[in-house]
Each structure stands twice: as structure tokens, then as C-alpha cells.
Amino acid sequence: IAHGKVERAPAWWVGARGALLQHAQAGTPRYVYDLATVRERARGLLAVPAIDRCFYAIKANPNAAVLRAIVGEGFGLECVSQAELDHVFATVPNLSPQRVLFTPSFAPRREYEAAFARGVTVTLDNVEALQRWPEVFRDRTLWLRLDLGHGEGHHEKVKTGGVAAKFGLPVARFDAFLAEARKLNVRISGLHAHLGSGIDDPRHWRGVYAELAGLADSVGTIETIDIGGGLPIPYTPDAQPFDLAAWRDGLDEIKAAYPRYGLVIEPGRYLVAESGVLLLGVTQVVEKDGVRRVGGDAGMNALMRPAMYEAYHGIHNLSRLDDGAGVAFDVVGPICESGDVLGRSRLLPAATSEGDVLLVADAGAYGMAMANTYNLRALPAEDVIG
Ligand code: LLP
Prior knowledge:
Elements: H1 12-15, H2 17-25, E1 30-34, H3 35-46, E2 53-57, H4 64-73, E3 76-79, H5 82-91, E4 100-102, H6 109-118, E5 121-124, H7 127-132, H8 134-137, E6 141-147, E7 169-170, H9 174-183, E8 187-192, H10 204-219, E9 224-226, H11 244-257, E10 262-265, H12 269-272, E11 276-288, E12 291-296, H13 305-309, E13 315-317, E14 327-332, E15 341-348, E16 357-360, E17 381-385
Parallel strand pairs: 1-17, 2-3, 2-10, 3-4, 4-5, 5-6, 6-7, 6-8, 8-9, 9-10, 12-14
Antiparallel strand pairs: 1-11, 11-12, 11-16, 13-16, 14-15
Helix pairs in contact: 3-4, 10-11
Bound molecules: ligand LLP.
């Protein structure tokens, strides 16, 4: 099946400009999430026939209204800490533990105990935990996270496979893990791999399923294969939207080859990134040595992604959207670090000035979730619309 170029629809926030400017009047910095966009992305994934169950990786954006919208569409939730577990059960009414995964990394013993007490599905990724805490795991049913030996993703820091990564049991230790599990009467009912975040190649996930299914056949107790998250979104103006049709076809094919296993995904970014904008108030506009800088009332404290991964986010002057954008500005924040830059050489209206509202696009994933209070700056506010 050939897949052509997918047209990008205009972002939701273009039409919601008036409402967003009103939200900004209540104070900036402020994240605003459009729940209609979240629901639409969730439905797109739920409609893929090969997928049996979808879990949302709440680390991307644990906002309560966002969680309820996603669960309302039929998603389960993937948590990585006891606080995330407590949060989802407190936030989503009548949440069944069967709809919750616990996939922590180097978590303390008590968090595994708490997860078992809640009755959620626990994924383990090392043999040492079984050896050290046999009484925690004895007679349990677990999923096993494997390191398939390579990482993928938009930046080195988000690759979660391969020797440099702390995640996952190397495939070479698979048999040793199974032997240890047998000693404790631990049943392995699921295999999991998540190789990274922001993976552009739609064939990646079918490959992961094939590798895990090949291993699962030898175990005999595997019911579920979890191929992780990592679906990308188009951040830059020239980026193509993720080819969901090619992704779906790949999963259909591989599911037909290994029909025995329930296929699970656990995306975060794909559901929420495009739903969120960060609104900033312009503080100062300064020219220094030929570089024009526009300052927002938050920077890397509200949105770490540019500083941490050199990530690109579109930046627009919401107050002067119709002015056209002709002058290159570096968009910076108020934090005392030279890395506090949200975007370099961005074209913005020449008249950009104090009090204007800047909009940082595609900030719904790993934005507020990673915000901090460095320099004792307050955390951004959050609103939802839609
Ligand atoms: N499952 C596991 C086990 C994960 O570790 C993650 C993300 C996901 C699912 C969801 O991945 P997603 O679908 O969102 O790519 N802060 C970085 C991304 C870190 C991702 C961490 N793990 C960023 O802003 O790009």
C-alpha cells in the first residue's frame, strides 16, 4: 500500500485565538490544553484494529482533565511512580486496576508493594529485583521489559534501549530471568519494550512486535505484547505528520503473522503534544550586538525541552497574529542560564513589545510535566478548553 503526503490541518489554536488571549489575561505563564484535540488523537489510535488495548503514558501530561478525557475514550493509563499511581486513582472516578500499568525504573521496593496492593499490572526489567526481594514477587504475575539492544528517538537523551540505557533486561539474560522467576513461581504474562520517544519510522513498532513475539513463543505463558510508546508529532514547519496509515498497516501485517498475543501500546506524546500551548507574557525586548531578543515571563523553567534536547517548538505572537512576521528574534526566558532560550532566530512581528502574548506551540507533552521552580519562579497555571 502506498502512502502519500498527509496534509497538515491548521492548528486548533488559530481559531481559538480570542479565547486564548482571554485566558492569558488571567495570568501568564499558562498552559492551555484543547481536549477536543486530545480526544481526536485518542480515537485515531483506538481505531487501529490490530491493537487490543491502549494505555496513556501519563508522564507526558498528568493534568486531571486530560486524564479523564483520555480514559473516557477507552484508554488505560501507564504509570511510573507511586505518586502517579496515587494520582490516577484519585483523579479518575471508578478506575479499574485492570486499566493501569506500572512500569517504573529503579523504583524502591515499597512502590512495587504498593502497586501489587492496588492490583495493577506490574512490569519488571531486571533479575536483581527478584533476587533481592523474593517475598515481594513470589507467586505474582508480571510483565517483563526487555532491552532489544538498540535505542531510537528524537535525541540521545530519550533513547531507552542499548548498552548506554538503564532500562530493560538484555535479551541475553532472558533465560536467566525465566529460571529465577520459576523458582519464585512468578508467571510472566506479558513482554514489553519501549525503545525511545519521538520515533519517526512507522515500521519501528511492527519490528518490536516481531522481536517480542519471537521470544514469547518460547515462554508459553505470554498473553500480551506491549510495544511501548514513542509515536512522534511534527514539531517543525516542514515536518510531516506521523504516517498513521503506514503504522496501522505494519501492525496489521505483523499481528496476522503472530495472532496469539494481545497487542498493547503506551503512547504519551502523540495524544497530548499538539493539544497544548504555552502562553507567555512579553517582558522586555532587547537588542544586543545585532541580536534581537524577546523575553517571555517563563523559559526553561516552564518548558525544558528546547534547553534539554534542542527541541523545536513553533513560537507566535498571539497578540499580533495578523501582523505577519518579518524580524528574527531569539525568544528567551527570565532564568539565569545562557541555555534559557526557547527558540533562536524566530520570525516575529517587528512591533513585538512588552505585554504581548507569545504562544509556544505543541507544548502539551513533557511541558508542564517537566516544569520546575528554578530561580524560585512560580509554576505555570493550567487551563483546558474544548
Ligand atoms: N512507555 C515508557 C516505558 C516510557 O518510558 C515512555 C516515555 C512512554 C511509554 C511514552 O513515550 P512517548 O509516547 O511519549 O514518546 N521528555 C522527553 C520524552 C521522554 C520520554 C520518557 N518515556 C521529551 O520531552 O521529548
